[in-house]
Design brief:
Distance between the termini: 33 Å
Number of domains: 2
Radius of gyration: 20 Å
CATH class of the largest domain: Alpha Beta
Number of helices: 6
Oligomer: single chain
Length: 238
């Protein structure tokens, strides 16, 4: 019998299931999936997962109804349920809390928020992500102004850019770059500056001045290309 914790991912859209699986790829856990609230409730009763990430808008039984059913069962109510949804007139944080959820996440799903939220309830969730060394030019825009930097590493969740001039903390950036070893397509990704390694004293003197970017909006095709690049180069990464 496996001693790994179980995590249930519930969403009727395959892309979001695969995205969440990718977020959890470094976490030692058994991943279970379901495509609607009915399947999820059956999985919770049978598998007794240690954590559930639940979409709200699904066929047959939506996430709110499923969460209510879980929390109404004395044998299941201890299982943490995190609701994942796009805010609308019909669904908001208050509706999820009223259903008994232990936490809420908004779509598009942010990797760091996804893992940080899960880590509150399951300490074995690995929040760090392996980055692959690289050297490639990256064009980026901040508030419409165009700049150029040099990517020194990349993962499916972000990259580090060598850049000498200052950038605003938490700035929103639009990145454009190629990964020529796996694709000839220009990738355009929206991201956020998460840490700055510039000025004096620098946070990390072992790497050139620059800043880290977290990918915020990545299309499914761009994500697949980045994953192929990481897998292709992972065997020689340090």
């Amino acid at each position: 019998m496996s001693s790994k914790p179980k995590i249930l991912l519930v969403d009727d859209v395959d892309f979001f299931i695969e995205l969440e699986k990718d977020f959890l790829k470094r976490t030692p856990a058994e991943i279970i999936t379901a495509k609607n609230g009915q399947q999820a409730l059956e999985a919770v009763r049978k598998e007794r997962p240690d954590l559930v990430y639940m979409d709200v808008n699904m066929p047959l039984m939506d996430g709110l109804a499923c969460c209510k059913a879980i929390k109404a069962d004395p044998e299941l109510r201890h299982i943490p349920v995190i609701m994942v949804f796009a805010t609308s007139k019909e669904v908001d944080n208050a509706a999820c809390v009223a259903a008994g959820s232990n936490g809420v996440l908004n779509k598009p799903v942010d990797r760091s928020a996804f893992l940080d939220m899960g880590h509150r309830f399951l300490f074995t969730i690995e929040r760090r992500e392996r980055r692959i060394p690289c050297t490639m030019g990256v064009n980026f825009k901040i508030e419409g102004q165009a700049y150029q930097g040099l990517a020194l590493d990349i993962s499916s969740g972000g990259m580090y850019l060598q850049y000498r001039n200052g950038v605003p903390a938490d700035a929103r950036v639009v990145l454009s770059f190629f990964l020529p070893t796996v694709s000839d397509q220009l990738l355009e990704i929206r991201g956020r500056v998460t840490w700055i390694n510039q000025g004096f004293p620098r946070k990390d003197l072992s790497i050139p001045q620059g800043f880290g970017v977290q990918f915020v909006q990545v299309g499914p095709n761009a994500l697949n290309i980045i994953k192929r690049f990481v897998e292709h180069n992972g065997a020689v990464a340090v």
